[in-house]
Amino acid sequence: MAKSRGLPAIIVLMNMRGGLPKFAAKNRDQGTPKENKAVVQGSIAYFGTYTVSESDKVISAKIEGSTCPNFVGGPDQKRLITSLTADELKFINPAASAGEKAPTGLEASEVSV
Predict the structure, then answer these.
(1) pTM of the model
(2) Is there a smaller number of Cβ atoms within 10 Å at the N or the C end of the chain?
């Protein structure tokens, strides 16, 4: 897994549903209301610093930027680790912005500092 090497550890996460529609206008600024709704409801991205409590199996993320503006500047976001190996990290968000416990997985190659 990523090691901070004495620096704050950074996480960038993008989670998207499969089958998101392409914008007919080939420009996201010109999406139809239906296209825009599908993309907003089917994707989330954020970045910030994080800490890991291996004993509690919790990731605490301080969100610094997000496609969900409500995440920015709020309290740390908690993620519950469901699996942690040398190659993979899997966790759920118990308070997902879409109102569901969203499972997420990251391959170690996707996590960098």
Answers:
(1) 0.65
(2) C
